[in-house]
Amino acid sequence: MTQRKRLSNTQSSTQNREEDDDTTFTQPSTSQVQRGLEKVTPAQVDQKTAEVVQYFLVKDQKKIPVRRADIVKHVVKEYRNIYPEIMKRAAHTFDQVFGLKLVEIDAKSHTYILINKLETTDGASPISSPANPKMGLLFVILSVIFMKEGVVKENVIWNTLKKLRVDLGKKHEDFGDVKKVVTDEFVRQRYLEYVRIPHTEPVEHEFRWGQRAEIEVSKARILEFMGELHGLEPQSWSQQYREAHPASNTQPGTSSQR
């Protein structure tokens, strides 16, 4: 019990330090940025922009969200007075060169992720049409949560996976430690939220969609998948259908797909 408390205190302390890192940085005004640009060469701005782009791309390989505090501390450094200009140019580079969109998923902690623009426009999400086993596993979990009205206890997820022959007690050939992938990796990537349920003994947790999932994953496609699985029309799940097609609630005869 003491060890668990110590671990909780350590995590809380780390989180507080991270928040403090960002509170020491004040977003420069337009005039401050302009004055800052007068003190550096275009080549220096281009070099720093390239470093920010590279930093994001490395983090994106593991789908790790990037915090403003980390960008300033580890990359921008002494160029912090032109941070907005560097980020604007980095976003332009992602858009024009890589076909990626830089999205802020948390305005409080100023946390960013990269989204493939093609996936958001044509619906060909790597999660809806997974190219690797982990994304397939994630799609199943997100589907269960969505169909259960947005929140499920963890034992529901574990039982579902067990039916698919993905057993927590055994090391999986594709996923390795399944529980670690689901409760740690997917949570850090902001695909899932893994929240302790208050006043439960032994301790219980529940899953919800994370911020990245809300942006990347098409709920309409999940319904199509469930319809194919059960041989039913997506409209058979009226509540989920309304959530997946919000525009159809106000404009009869139309539907909205991500």
What's the total count of β strands?
A: 6
Strand content: 5-15%
Q: Give unreliable regions as ranges.
A: 1-15, 120-124, 251-258
- The helix content, as a percent range, equals 40-55%
Estimated structural class = mainly alpha
Order of helices and strands: HHHEHHEEHHEHHEEHHH
Profile the largest sheet. 3 strands, antiparallel
- Coarse shape: elongated
Distance between the termini: 45 Å
Biggest sheet, spatial arrangement of strands: 1-3-2
Q: Output the radius of gyration.
A: 21 Å
Mean pLDDT comes to 81
3D structure, described in words:
The protein has 258 residues and is mostly helical. It is built from twelve helices and six strands. Strands 1-3-2 form a three-stranded antiparallel β-sheet. The longest helix has 22 residues, at 2-23. The radius of gyration is 21 Å and the shape is elongated. The termini are far apart. 23% of the residues are buried. Residues 1-15, 120-124 and 251-258 have low confidence and may be disordered.
SSE layout:
Layout: H1 2-23, H2 30-37, H3 42-60, E1 66-67, H4 68-76, H5 83-98, E2 100-106, E3 111-116, H6 117-122, H7 133-147, E4 152-153, H8 154-163, H9 178-188, E5 192-196, E6 205-209, H10 211-216, H11 219-230, H12 238-244
Antiparallel strand pairs: 1-3, 2-3, 4-6, 5-6
Helix pairs in contact: 1-4, 3-5, 7-11
